[in-house]
Amino acid sequence: NAGVTQTPKFQVLKTGQSMTLQCAQDMNHNSMYWYRQDPGMGLRLIYYSASEGTTDKGEVPNGYNVSRLNKREFSLRLESAAPSQTSVYFCASSEDFRVGAFFGQGTRLTVV
Amino acid sequence: GQQVMQIPQYQHVQEGEDFTTYCNSSTTLSNIQWYKQRPGGHPVFLIQLVKSGEVKKQKRLTFQFGEAKKNSSLHITATQTTDVGTYFCAGPGTGGFKTIFGAGTRLFVKA
């Protein structure tokens, strides 16, 4: 089993460009999450989806949008990238929010 | 809003020394989760505690959940270089079906 798969692993964008980060899980989990990790800041929740068909804002949603395409896939879109969005992005999934989550390998995004 | 705080932010130890990181929540938690992230890697789920006063062990790691379910600790006995990384605690966020992470404690082990 692959677990949680994120693509791409690395990306460099110019300010103002858009892109979509893809995430897929093969564990039949209900909940999926997008976090960003900046040095010394821990993991901050951007958006989450408690179940297929629902999405909600986390701690730092500004500048992002998400789509829960189906139970397996949860994408994160940056409409107009800014240097402040330079970070490592992690997708995660869990059976529900009350149990431990499995993380993808991360996407290292640089906005210049 | 809800906060999950961890101390210390960094800890340098000599191999063989013990290490403890503490996690404190501003609200009562239904459960607490612990994760480990190796340098350059992704967070890996270690364990979940649910009951007040619960203590669980994984080899040299001991996890404890406070009686009031607002604090937790992770203790590593006789650290090894393989213990290097950042240890995060996390708990359910209030007002939604989400998980909130502490800022983490980064452990450095000198051989």
Describe this structure in words.
The complex is a heterodimer of chains A (112) and B (111). Chain A is mostly beta strands and 112 residues long. Chain A is built from no helices and 11 strands. In chain A, strands 2, 4, 5, 6, 9, 10 and 11 form a 7-stranded mixed beta sheet that branches. Chain A has a 4-stranded antiparallel beta sheet with strand order 1-3-8-7, with no helix packed on it. The radius of gyration of chain A is 13 Å and the shape is globular. The model of chain A has no long low-confidence stretch (mean pLDDT 94). Chain B is an all-beta fold and 111 residues long. Chain B is built from no helices and 11 strands. In chain B, strands 2, 4, 5, 9, 10 and 11 form a 6-stranded mixed beta sheet that branches. Chain B has a 5-stranded antiparallel beta sheet with strand order 1-3-8-7-6, with no helix packed on it. In chain B, β6 and β7 form a beta hairpin. In chain B, 38% of the residues are buried. The A-B interface holds A 31, 33, 35, 40-45, 48, 50, 56, 58-59, 90, 92, 94, 96-106 and B 9, 30-31, 33, 35, 42-45, 47-48, 88, 90, 92-93, 96-104.
Largest sheet of chain A: 7 strands, mixed
Work out the oligomeric state of the chains in this entry: heterodimer
Strand tally of chain B, please? 11
Please compute the radius of gyration of chain A using only Cα atoms.
Answer: 13 Å
Structural class of chain A: mainly beta
The H-and-E topology of chain A, N to C, reads as EEEEEEEEEEE
